[in-house]
Amino acid sequence: MITQATILDSPQLPLKMLILDAARKLFAEHGYAQVSMRKLATTIGYSPTTIYHHFKDKKELFLCLTEETYRDFLQAINEILSVSKSPKGALKDILYTFVTMGLENPNAYRVGFMMETDMWNAGNSHFEQNPLGKTMYERIKSCVKKCMPPNSSDEDILVTSNSVIAAAHGLTSLLVTYPHFEWGPVAKLKKQVIDSAVDAIV
């Protein structure tokens, strides 16, 4: 994934990648509703017709961006799980990585996890309906389950999973939205928020 790219200064990039990078930046800065295929075409210096050769509409373009983000996160989760020695250690590493990747790729994070679109109104959110997004969530939920007593109810597992995800997402969203706020050392803040959430699992 190439993030924060200066689109017009990168003529060597394939056209589809130029379109995706420009769209990611536009969505992150202006929101889904304010971005049109014509506006995107103007940004990269091509006609709207050229973009339609690659994406049938704005929705397909947006979903392609979210899928790219979810794939990156899922790959990171799978790598952590493949070498982890304890469920709690793995869960902390996953959540640390979640925050770190969000901060390193703020536009991708906004688009993948913070963006309101007309897809929500149809009860068909881009995260909930995406297979990669679902798999990400299930990987984390499975890890949480392993941290809990064997007799834990499905409801307790669900609530606990959502609570640790909320801790990581809430922190990431704040850091992405207010990057210049006096947060203190981010590494220390990240550790305190995530460790507190995970260590509270009993």
UniProtKB/TrEMBL annotation:
Residues 13-73 form the HTH tetR-type domain. Residues 36-55 bind DNA. GO terms for molecular function: DNA binding. Keywords: DNA-binding. It comes from the Bacteria. Pfam families: TetR_N. PANTHER family: ACREF/ENVCD OPERON REPRESSOR-RELATED, ACREF_ENVCD OPERON REPRESSOR-RELATED. This is Transcriptional regulator, TetR family. The lineage of its organism: Bacteria, Pseudomonadati, Thermodesulfobacteriota, Desulfovibrionia, Desulfovibrionales.
